[in-house]
Amino acid sequence: MTDTTTDDVTERDLVWKDAATGHEYRVAFADVPARNLAVLCQKGITHFMGNEQASKYVAYKASDVGKAASKEDQLAWLKTCRDEAFEKVLNGTLGIRSASGAARVTGIDAVMRRIAVEMLTAELAIHNAKLPTGDKTIEVRGKAYTREQLIETMLKRRADLIKQKAQERMTTTGDDLFAEDDAAA
């Protein structure tokens, strides 16, 4: 059985899709007992901080830089990798890809980005198109755009609507973790 993730991630639902059968399991957070949410969160952080960072570490050790590093330097690299991963958990940027050295985003910015992706996905689906990945481009009105360019354009052109939707989503999901960020904005 093949696990897959989905771009259709919201703050309201848990989603798992089986790539082999296409069957999707979706449930609202509110419908899952709190204890089970806690167990899922624990399993998630264990996987994210353990397996995912260990996978990066194995790739690093196999690289020329990693091979040349001492064991202490390799372990220091792993600790930095895990520290950065944990910071993403705390600052609301988990699951948000960014170029190295890019500024961190606030919780509201992360939700706004997700909404922009949802809007783009819906608009492109009307034209039987999908958001490009990586450095791939898609032509829109005669101009080639990468995924990041499309998202930035959507965030600029529909900023007011997206911010309103993000604030509503954060309120309706009970997500007040970023209340200080919202007040500062």
Give your account of this protein's structure.
By secondary structure, the protein is mainly alpha-helical. It folds into 3 domains: 1-32, no CATH class; 33-91; 107-184, no CATH class. It has 7 helices and 5 strands; from the N terminus they run βββααααββααα. The strands form 2 sheets. A 3-stranded antiparallel β-sheet has the order 1-2-3, with no helix packed on it. A two-stranded antiparallel sheet has the order 4-5. Helix 1 (34-62) packs antiparallel against helix 3 (71-91) and helix 4 (107-126) crosses helix 6 (159-172). The termini are far apart.
Element layout with pairings:
Blueprint: E1 3-4, E2 13-18, E3 24-28, H1 34-62, H2 64-68, H3 71-91, H4 107-126, E4 137-140, E5 143-146, H5 147-157, H6 159-172, H7 179-184
Antiparallel strand pairs: 1-2, 2-3, 4-5
Provide keyphrases for this structure.
185 residues, 3 domains, two-stranded antiparallel ribbon, disordered N terminus
**Overall helicity:** 55-70%
**What is the H-and-E element order?**
EEEHHHHEEHHH
Any low-confidence stretches, pLDDT <50, length ≥5?
1-8, 175-185
The count of β-strands is 5
Number of domains: 3
Q: What Rg, in angstroms, do the CA atoms define?
A: 19 Å
Residue share in β-strands: 5-15%
Mean pLDDT: 81
Could you give the distance between the termini?
44 Å
The biggest beta sheet is recorded as: 3 strands, antiparallel
* Sheet/helix structural class: mainly alpha
Offer a quick outline of the entry.
The chain is mainly alpha-helical.
